[in-house]
Specification:
There is one protein chain. It contains 27 helices and seven strands. It is mainly alpha-helical. Strands 2-3-4-1-5-6-7 form a seven-stranded mixed β-sheet, with helices on both faces. α3 runs parallel beside α12 and α8 runs parallel beside α10. Among the domains are: 251 residues, Rossmann fold (3-Layer(aba) Sandwich); 152 residues, no CATH class; 131 residues, no CATH class.
Length: 784
Amino acid sequence: MERATAGQPAHAKEPASGTPAPAERIALELLVHGVGGATPQEMLDDPRTVRISGDGTAAVHRRADDVTAESRPEDYRGRPVPEAYVWSNLTSGNGSRALWLLLLPFMVVNLAHWMRPTARRMKRAVRAYGLLVRLVALTLTVLLVAAACEIAVDLVAWQCAGTRACVADHSWLGFLAPEAAGGGGWWSQPGRRLALAAALPVALTGLLWYLSHRTWSAYESQQPLPHQPDPEEAARNALGRPGFWYGRRLVARLRAAHTAAGLLTVAAAVGASAARYDRRPGGSALLDVLGWALLAALAGCGAFVVWVVCRRGRSEHRLDQRLDRTLVRCLPLAALALLVLAVLYAGWSRPDWASTGRLPGNATFGGIALVQGALVLALAAVATALHRRAPDTRTAVRGLGGPAVAMLACALGGVMSGGGSQRVADWLDGRGGTIEGPPALLTWQASVIPPLLVVVAVLCAGLAVSTARQLRVELARVPREYPGERPDTARTRRIAAKRVSATLTDRVPLIVGVTSATTLLLGAAALVGAWASDEVPGEAAEGAPGFVEGTAQTAQALGSWLIGFGFILFVTWGRRAYRDASARRTIGILWDVGTFWPRAAHPFAPPCYAERAVPDLTWRMHTWTRATGGRLVLSGHSQGSVLAAAAAWQLLPSVRKRVALLTYGSPLERLYGRWFPAHFGPAALSSLHREVDCWRNLHRATDPIGGPVRLHGDCGPQVDRAALRDPLAYGRTAEHPLPAPLLGHGDYQADPAFAEERTRLLGRLRPAVPRPAPAQEGLPDTAG
């Protein structure tokens, strides 16, 4: 505790006579903000705030007047002490986070791991699901590194540096050019050019390793509150298990495996080219043997990498602090050693070797696409079996959300790899026809983007028609909800449009499902087309009827432009986020949603902020309740409600029963319950409702993110309060002399219902609960 330590309630000593009398017990409201972040001044509505615990990344703040609130409980009778947990810097801090855009496909495939349907007594299927997602994640690493090899090794070092016209346009490649292209130096031999060009994909692999290692130490190294959950409770929901928010061992193993996979991909790109040349008739027998030995070693090491990825998943039932140091250190070093051997082997003098045409990238990228498609189909089969065992009509895409999102992750990886290759090829081929360009498969994949966009456009048109119908219904409904008001057509339309636009969130599963299925089918068609003909679509369609040939040429040209535009968009967003704090905050919202979950499938995904935030909240609630015996309302908005629920599950049962939960604008059921049913489905949310003292949820019909949690129980007729009116007044009234704004997802505290529900929760909380004995809970006495 670095600042205002004297005001830290967790360190306060209790009176010698025991806990305070029930009438003197103080109440605390712990506020947790949502997506986009917030300042402590905004959350506490006071310009003077003090950080009482935490650091510059995530911290707990109070108003300056409330720092010593525990020493004067009589001043807070009838109202809680507000306290704000600010975690926004975990996702939108300094400019280096702009590099996280490179990790977008990895983040998406990591989400697929957590979208598993609810499983009941199907442990083998659950393990198979996690294994398949980890394998899909491994193919993404290989794909991105292979794309870097395509750019540096094939396009630059092999094609452009070996062609006189291309070297003439790019004089900086002159030292690599062979004698026939106007050069003839030491680097002019193809093998040496390839060895030098390998530096770029090696640097990319090193950057990914560095980001993963650095973010682990900064974000995910916080140990959760040690506890022993009830076995039945742990079986119901994994979020309450001791090791759920501490995946250090798995992340380290996967990081070593993926780093090795990247280095082996580079070694194969360099060594296989030289080995193919040495296998020609009349070649050197010694080099031929060395080439076969190198390829065998690469294959063996690659098989071991796959075994490491398949070997084990997460350890959640206990806090696993072991680290496989030998494996973590030796596996990347072994791959690096093979890479050095491949570079030395390729750099051996071969005076007669000349670079012509393309390197065989079709087979490489085609094999990756084939494996990815097979894995996604297998994942869909496992997800279907799990969903049928415990069907739920609210589950997104009928349990196929994980496979659909995994397919989109592969598509994002394809856009990044294909777009980068296309742009670099266009830049190098300045005069046109100087080089052959990227593999034909990448052009075929780009050519299916226009028909995919046509399908998406038709789907959006259908949604627009249904939205227009719903708008007419809302236009008739809004005036009935504000009886006695003077009709205002413009005002009614704004309210109705806001409500209808908020319902579009519920259509996302349809869009994702259709887009993923179409992507899989079109990707398969592109793969078949590329293998049937080694030519690009426009050339393959020559001689066909005019309409077919014209369509193929149009799709090829438009697709190449679109995939290149997509790559440029990634680069532009990253550059803007690096320089512009507001753009960084906008991108941070994406990370707020996508990086809540631990890195269980891909170690190069952006770091999991919840592995820092959830332990922070859990420790804060535990230490405060033990020190004071007071009442605590955990108040979460939007994504903050998800963090609040996750932290409540991590509490000791005796502490959880002394906590009330107030959520507003919450995506717990609407988004997390539908997309992540195994962890936020009806059974999990019902167990949380039973285990906390009380839970109330506020939502609006105009909120595109938050919604009801659809739970019933003894906390009133149900957890959800009826949808709040938005706006609070239709026209001008005595309470609202100016037009009341449409609040949508924000400013729930402005509604009188918020204060009513908070007061209700405080009244229901049981204050007179004896302090739990440390020996019974298995924890040290942190109260002093």
